[in-house]
Structures are given as C-alpha cells and as structure tokens.
Amino acid sequence: MYFPTGWPKVIKLNTSDEDSSYIKPCRHPYLPILILITSRTLQFWDTRNSTLFAVYKRPDSTFDELGLNMYGCWHRDGERFVILTKIGHIIIFAVHMKEINYSENSQTYSKEGIDFLIDMSTIKSNSCDFSLTHFEELVRISFNTIISSIATFGDYIILSTQTGYLHQLDWDGQSSSQMSVNITRLVHHKRDSTATIPEEGPAKNVIIKSIFPSTSPLGMFVIVNDGEVYFLASSDINAFFNDSTKLYYFKGIIDAVDISINYKFKIAAIGCRSGQVQIWKQDVDSGNWQNSHILDNPDENTSTNNQVLSLQWSTGDEKVLAVLWMNGFLSIFSVFGSLISTYDELDMNANPHLGPINWTKDGYSLWLLRQVNSHGSFRLNEFLVFNFLKSALSFLPILSNQENVILHSPTTVYIYPKSTFCKTEIEHQQNMHFCNIIQVERNYIMKNWPIKMVALNERYKYLAVAGSNGLCMCNYSKNKWKLYVNETQEMSFRCNGGIAWWNEILVVSSTTNSSQKNNITFNSLHEKLEDSQTLLKINFPQRVCILDVYLDNLLVLTANHKLLIYHLSKTQLGNKNTLTTDLILNTSYEEYGWSPYNIISASMSTVQTEVLSPVNEFGLASILINVEGYLMMLQIVSHYDLHSQKNLVKSLSPVCIASGVETVFSYPYLPPGLGTQSRPYLSQALWLACGQAGLKIWLPLYPQEDPRNPSYLSKWIMLTIYTRIQPLSVLFEDGTIAGIECDQLHYDKIKRSVAYSLPRRNIQLTVSLILKQLLKRNLNSHAMRITYSCADLPHFDYILEHLIHSVLEEEAAQGAPTANALLPNVIELIRPFPNFIKIVGECARKTEIAVWTYLFGAAGKPKELFELAMEKGNLEIAANYLLIVETIEQPAVAYRLVRRILNACLESSNWPLCTNLIQFIQAIAKNELPQSPISPKVSIPIGNVQLQTTDHEIDFPKKTVPPRVTPKKTHQPQNTPDDKKIPRPQFMANLEIREEEDIVEKVLGRHARRQLTNLNLRELAVMSSNLNFSLVNWLKNEDYFHIKIESYSNALLQLHTLFKWPMPGQRSMGQDSNTNVKSPKNYFNEIEFNDEREIDTLSMTSSVSTKNVQVRSDSGYSLPKVASCFRSEMDQVEVTTYLDSEDHFAELSEEGENNSVDLKHCEKEIKFYKEIFSKSDCHEWHILTGILLLDKHSVVETVSAVMRSADQLGQNRVKGISEGLHDISIWAFHNCNGYVEFLLGMKKLLESMQNYLSDQNVDELKVNRIEAVSMTSVDDSLSPKTPEYDSSSSCTIS
C-alpha cells in the first residue's frame, strides 16, 4: 500500500508562449527519468532529484516540414525514442544516457548529433545523477494519411490511421501489408456477432483514438472514436496481425477516455467521462472480460466536471491505482477498490488545467502537470510531485513483516511497535503517531538508492534493508548499522526474490550483476557481511521469484515454475555453527497454469480443511499462494521416499479459497493444541484483505462434541466484515487489525494549493464484527466459545459494547420489530459476563433515548440493573443508570436512588463521582421547577461523558408537595428558634429548589457530622475541598449537641494518632508514687485553698491505684462524666483510664523526633483545623486543638469568650469545657507529664471556671426557689386560708 506524506513539491517550469502546449510525459523503462514533450522541445527530468538535466529542441526548419511534436514513447530497452508529429510524421531517435559518477575528476562525454541540445547537467552537476551523452535522429517515416495514435509493443511500433487501419512497424521504419489489419472490419464483425449494436446504413470507419499495449494478458486495448473499448488478443507478440487475432468487446462502456493495465493481477482500469472508473478482469477459462467493481469520484457534490482525466497503476508492484478527475480530485485506490487517500484541492489556481499523472520508476512519487489559463490559452506552469510511503508488504509480503506496521520511504524506515496496538492504543489516541524512525546508513543509500525491500526481525531487534544493489543490517534498538566490509562485494549483486529472517540468520535471494547467477545465501547477524562469512549458498538455474520462512522451513518459488521447500537445521561443530538444508518438497506449478510474474505472494501455514488433524513433523499443513488475486491452497501431507529413505512431504491439488484477494494474513507461529490454545478460532483463521469487498475471514468451526471423535468433520465459514482502514498487520490473539490512515491538514496561514498529508497508525477491533456475523447465521455456540476465549483481553468490554451498539443502531433504524431480531441473542451472549451491567449502561449512554425502550426491553429494567450494580458495589456503573432511571421512571424514584448512591460515594471517598452526582441533582431540580422553563436539551455530566437528554420526548408527572413538618429537637437550646433555616453550602448557591428536595445538604451534613464525631478531620477537609463544602458555615449552623466532644482525653489521644503528633511528656503506667507530680484530687483542692502558691513549689505525693476501675465506651475508653464541682467528686472517686499500651506514646514521640519535616507539616495542618474551629465558633474543638499545640493563650482566650456569653448555650459549653479539662487532667496524670504541667499553668483559669459554674448554680437555685414560692402563693389564693406562721419560721435562702 502507498500513503502520501507531507506537502507535494512544486516545480516551476519556464516555458515560452510558443511552446505552451504539452503531451503526456513518458517514463523511461528502467531509469528514474521522465521526458516531458512540448510542442517544440524534449525535456529530460531526473525524478530522483526532481532536476531538469537536458533539453532538446529540433531545428526550426523541421517544424514547417514535419510539424510540431504531438506524442512520443520509448522502446523497451530505453535506447530509442519515437515522436509522432501533428501532421502524421514519425521520427525515431537513438538515445544514450549515463549516470554521473561524482568521484571522477574529469568527465568526457560524446555528444553526437545533438547540436540543438542544452546539457543542463553541466550547469547543475551537483543536483542531478544523469547526463545525456548521445541523442541522434535515426529515421523519418511518412504516411499518406493522418496518424491518430501510436504506441510501442515489444520490438514494434503500433500506429493507427484515420482510415481505420492498424499498422505494425519495425524500429528501422520497415512495414508491409501483412503487418496491417482493418480494425473497422473487426469491430463491425464483432458488433454483428454479439448483436449489441445493430448496424444501420453503410459502415463507417472506426478510428482508434488511443492504444494501450499489454503483455499480460498479451494484446492491446484500444479506445475508438465513439468511446467504446476493445481488446485485441493474440497468442504471439511477433505474429500479432494474423488470423488468430481475437477481438473482445467491453459491453456497456461508451465514454472511455483512458486505460491503465495491471499486469500482475491481469486487470484493466478504464476511466470514463461520467466520472466512473470501471475495473475489468479477464476470465481465466473463456478469456472474456468481466466487470469486477467500479470506483466513483469521492467528491460528494458531483457535477458535470467530474470526468476522469488520467489514471495509472503504480510501477513495480502495481499495488495501487492513482486516479485524477477534472474537478481536482486525486485519489489513491488499492487493487480491488479500497480508497486509501484523496487530495481534493488541486485546482486552487484560477481556471487550472490538470494534466496527466505519471508514477516514477521507483514508485515513491507521483508527477502531475498543472497549467494556468493565461490570455485565453493554457501555459505550462508547474509540476506537482507527490511523495509516498510504501508498506513493506507491497513488495515483500513475508510472514515476519505482518506482525508490525512497517513503512519506508526511499531512504527511511518507519516501524510502528506492536506493543501499543491494544490497550494503550485504545485508551491513548496520541500514540497513533508514534513510530521508530530509522534513517538508512548514508554510505549505503547514496550508492544504492532507493530502498526496495525491508525485513524485520523483532525477536533480535534487527532490520535488513536491500536497495538497488547489496544489502545492509541494522540493530535498530541501538541504531547500529552493519555494512559489507568489501564495497565491491556489496555492488556485485542485487536482491530480487526477497529477504527473510530465520532466527538470527538472514536468508537472501540474489542475482549477481556480472554473471547473472541466481542463488540463496544465509548470513548470520553475528558475523561480518562478506562472502567468506556466508554460512551456506544454494545455486538455482533460474531467478528466484518468491521466498518465505515459516518455523524451520524455507519456501522457494523460481521462474522455471519450481516450488521447493527446504527444512533448515543448525548444528555446532566445535566453535563453528554449521547450517544444513534438506529438500523435503520439489514440485512444479506449471501444470496449474500459473505464471511466475502473476504470483503475488506465497507462504506456509498450519491451515487445513481438517482443522483437528495433526500436522506433520515439519509443522506444515498447507501452502497459500495468491495468484492474480485468487487465493489457492495446496495441502501438504507426509510422504516417505523409498529412494532417499527419508520422511518428505508432497502437495495435493490446489483449492481456490477466495478471489479478489490483495493481502493474506496467516498465523506466523505454530499454534498449540486446541485444548491449550487460548484463542484457536482467531489464530487458525485466514484473514484476507479484499479491497472494496471488505476483510474476509476464513473461520474454522470446531465440532461441538469431543474433538477426538473422527465421525465429526471440521467445517469452515467465510465471514465478510467491513473496516475503515486498510489492514497492514493482524494481531490474531487480540482480534485486532492495524493500518494507516492519512489525514489531510489545511493551514490557512500558509498559502498552499494542496493539503498536508499526515500518515498515522490506527487500529480496529474485529471480534465484535465476527460475533455479529456468527449470530446472524445462528452459530450461537461458536460465538459463545469465541467470546469466552477473549474474556481476558484488556479491551473485552469495548468489544461487547461495540457489538450491542452496532446491532442496536441497525435494528432500531428499521422501526418495526423484525422476526429474526438479533439484539436478544446479543444480550444473552453477554449476560453471563460480570461486566454485563456496565456494558449495557455504557451503550445506553451513547445512543439516542428513542432506542432505550428497545434496549432495556431485552436487557432488563434500568432500576433492576441499578440495584444489581449497588449490590456489587459498582458505584460508577450505578451512576450510569441514574440518567436512564430519571428519564424513564418518575422523579421520586430518581431522588431516592441518587440519595443512596451519594451516601455510598461519600463513604468510599469517591469525590469525582460525588461532584458529578451533585451536578446531576441540580440539573434534575432545575428542570422540575414550575417557574423554570424546561430547556429542550439538558447536558448532564456523569463520569467523563457529557450526556444529552431530550425532555420533550418524555412527560414528567407533576409532584404534589406535602406541608413541611419540622421535627422537634430534644437537645435544642431554649433560645434557639425551631424554624431556623440552615443556609445552603456554597455549591448550592443560586439554586432554587424546594426544601423537601434539598437532599444534597442533608446527605453532606450527615456525612460531615459522622466524620467529625469519629475525629476524621482529614477526611472532612478532603470532602470540603473536593465538594466545595464550607466547613465554617456548616459548623456555625450545626446543633451544639451534635458536635459536642464526649471524651476530651479520648479525642486528644486520637488526634495524636491521626497526625502522628508526639506527646509533650511521658509517664509510664504504674509509676512510683514518689514523683513530684500532684494527683488530680490534691491539685484541685489546692486550687481552692492555696491560690497564691507558685506552681513550681507544689510538692505533694499521691497514690492512685491503676487496677481498681476500668470504664469502657464505644469510642475505645472514656471517663465518667464529672459534676460541675470537681472538689466533691475527686474526694470520693478514684478513676483510671484504659490505654492500649505504654509503648504507643513512645512510638509517637520517637517518630516526631526523627521526622522534623513531617512535624512542621502536621503543625500547619493542626493550625488549619484550629483556625476553622475558631471562625465557626466551635469552642470545644478550638480548645482541644489549642491543647494539642500547647497554645495556652488561645485556650484562655476561648474559655473567657465562652464565659462572657450570658445565654444558656454558653453555660452548657463552659460546663462541657470544664468537664473536658478535668477528663484530660486525670488522663495526663497517668500518661503524660507534659500535659500536667500545661494544665498547672492555667490554674487561675480553672479557678475562674469553677467560680463561674458555682455562681450559675446559686443563681439557678434562687430562680427555682422563687418560682416555687410564686406557685405556692397562687395555690394559697385559691385554697382556704391557713393559720399564719411565726416570722422565725420563714424560709431563708442562702
């Protein structure tokens, strides 16, 4: 295959007005030279360097005598050239050109008979490689009639006249009546015999407008004056005009303008004025021509100017067809009609006239003439030179080149790695343009330009490259080249039949330039490249046409119709490796009628009609040969030769598997047995690229019973799938094909008349297409076996999703349900797999809402699939169904489901999904508001996909709003209003939503409360950051009793563990009581009775038992709640705490000492939370973080602020803080000296808190007594009077 690359080169032509017209350029038969014929000159162009190296102009006197130049063509030896003038004269020239050798100091050339020649090579000697050394007029031939066309055929010149005759001339100008034929008589005889065109009136002369000689098949195509096409066939090129000449008529063609013949495939491309290109192929048996397929103009806006201007097959391999249309489109097609690339802007200039196209000899570039309309006439303006990259399979379709996509230019090789074909290629499209670019060694390519063959050895990371002469190797992993030691040996041979790798040995088919000997040599990559290091050489009497290597076998096809197979083996004798070959098959393919020139490819494989039959000891089952597009299979069977007493093989009669085949892909390794092979269906299949007919897969159908049962015969089925790329590589185990696509890029800022071509590697998965074809044929069991075998592929889910999507779109487009619906079978095929729910959801998200009913009618209700996903914990999958449920079900159902999944996402910290769910809730709420108009489309992001729903397709039921009922809070302060509205978080700002539907605030608030209660401060901060959840607003509006700290000591210890924050001091449990640390009881006694004593002078011993009481709680451990008066409690109770171990604190302290950087980070983090608690008036938590940081000032300031508040909430907070500090003091006395010293430093603060609480208790007693007296007075007024008491008995309130 050929792929355009880069911008085309534009070559300006300086042509005078009198020399403005031009004729079709003529390519040299074997040199990269192009002759451009103008009306007065012949221009010689070096296509390798795009350089003009010679211009010949006839004497002015000859123009009046002979006329202006009209047409020209070469002799097949390239040493003679013929020109046809406008008035019917023929001039034959002798031409000789020589390649310039720049190493020579002096160059002397004989310029005989070229007085009117300008040798441009002497002026531009550094930019062209050829020089015209001889150009002489040999003979002039004149006819009495006008010559309409001319062509060269073998050693003859064929010309047609206006009288309806075809004449055959020798190159010396000789002609006779026996070498002429009346084409008019033949055409009318053919018309009468076929009765296709009835003859009316007298017969008119048939004038041949164009002649197109053909060597395979032998004959010539002609276009007559009414646009019809005929083929004149003959059995002998030297006796063409005799009674054996046959005329074949192409039925249905009446507007032909150009013809190009593909000799390897024996097909003809006929361009028509209607814009069609009809491809015709000759029937092997009858010889008649049949229409194979039609190529249309790729321009969708077809108009009257879509006539075909020119078309031509690529030179050498003839694998692509270039077609130029009048509307400026230039397209490249494969042999059987697959469109590879298209240029659509060749007519950017004002009123351009596009001329003929010509492939260069090497096939790497395509030359196009373009004229511009100037003053009413066309003036020759420029050449457009399009550059192409070739696939390595174009010339060398060996098995080792089928594993990777390999392209090459004349000097560079591009290798696309196989490792990125599957998962990486699907997930990261940026890898499409990645390839390994290898520049061929300059010393080799300068002398042997261009590259002809490339063979890759992926195992050893070696690359073999063959140019016009010799070859070279490259270790492309190290970019190290290996050339021939002796340059003479390198230039002494050329590779013609192919090159291939067998392990570390390179097998080369070559022909010597001097003696024309043909041989195959074996060279090791570990040895030097020279004749003395050749491991083995096999001589052949005829040229080797094709070779290939499979396992340890070498296949060879020669020009004398021999088909040979060698078994290769390597033995080691001492320190030297010895290579031996055993000829195991020697047969001829001449009896089958195959021409060596028409064999496209040949390879060995294990494919056989009996798929379960064991292969022979050589690992061979068949030979696959592509002849003219027909894939033939020769099965190989074991054979014991009595003469040699060896086990050999023999071939059976060929069987045609398919037609119209461009490339054959077969498994390059020996597949294991059916039981151990991972994917036998895919690896044992044949993959055939058939151009316009798609990709054909010859798939084995293994028996359903025991494979060892001989009563079951294996079967094959031919499946056809259509791909968007031209396959260049097949990964059999992955069911993936890889190819090249060409992007045409247009840059507005750069004034270019043609787009920039960028080749890129692309892949396509084919397993889903195979499964679809099997299900259509009711082969469900085979489809299930293939599906299970592919379950371990990284892109397996995508395969099944693509299968559902393709079937769904195809059947949903039909409207009415069909009797043989395929979607239920597809669902049953996928249902057993664990990702069935995910696959259905992904497919639904990428399809229209109108087809959801059909999809979920077969797959199940969306709500049921949602429940299954939630049971399995697949939150992302469950989220996919929210939009579906919201669209199909009632809104209340969607709200209930979204609350469930939002809670689950918060518990699993799936913040991206939480964000998308919140946006989803907002979108639903906005659409359901009565005062908000419903937009026709709503884009709802879930996951990474933007979904669009069409609301007018579904009628949403209106929801009745019940009255709001506010639950009574048992712990709510008296002065806090019950109907206080909690402000919404920042992410819900400006969102008008009914309060009963405001589930986001409730869910997030409940989760935040749970995290704060469990002291998961970091989780709370992460939630706030990811969900834009304002902690300050939430804490300010949260109920005090919901966020109250139950156990200060327990919370402080958990914060130490959370932040890995070291203790300020340590004390082991059960420490000796003779330490200078006060017990909590004596300390608080001292607060009341020893106010003025200094802290550092306190010295009192205490004995506190650590084994008396252990009080546990759900949070790990806790202390009993302490009353407001510490003194009385501590005089009566001795309490101890439950600790994990005394080593825990030592570990925290040691870790903090050894990691000062982490401590600084933790300190910043704790200060952050402390600041949050301060701004939100969360005093208890602010005091706790202050104690953690030993920030005495902040603790004192916070407690003072709380004590200054006069409401009941402030009193409750002071009481809670007092109890918490008491809790910490008891825990610190037993575990941490540092906190004891810290608390001793706040003696006055603690005393103030006790006094505050005592005063509040006294005030409370007074209030209660007054209320009691008031109630008594009221009762007395309503009851009978009682005796008065003495004043001494009155109540006194103290």
Automatic annotation (TrEMBL):
The keyword Transferase does not apply. Its main location: membrane. Gene3D superfamilies: YVTN repeat-like/Quinoprotein amine dehydrogenase. Coiled coil: none annotated. It comes from the Eukaryota. This is Protein RIC1 homolog. Keywords: Membrane. InterPro entries: Quinoprotein_ADH-like_sf, Ric1, RIC1_C, WD40/YVTN_repeat-like_dom_sf. Residues 770-927 form the RIC1 C-terminal alpha solenoid region domain. GO terms for biological process: intracellular protein transport; retrograde transport, endosome to Golgi. It is found in: Membrane. It comes from Oopsacas minuta. Residues 956-983, 1274-1294 are annotated as: Disordered. GO terms for cellular component: cytosol; Golgi membrane; Ric1-Rgp1 guanyl-nucleotide exchange factor complex.
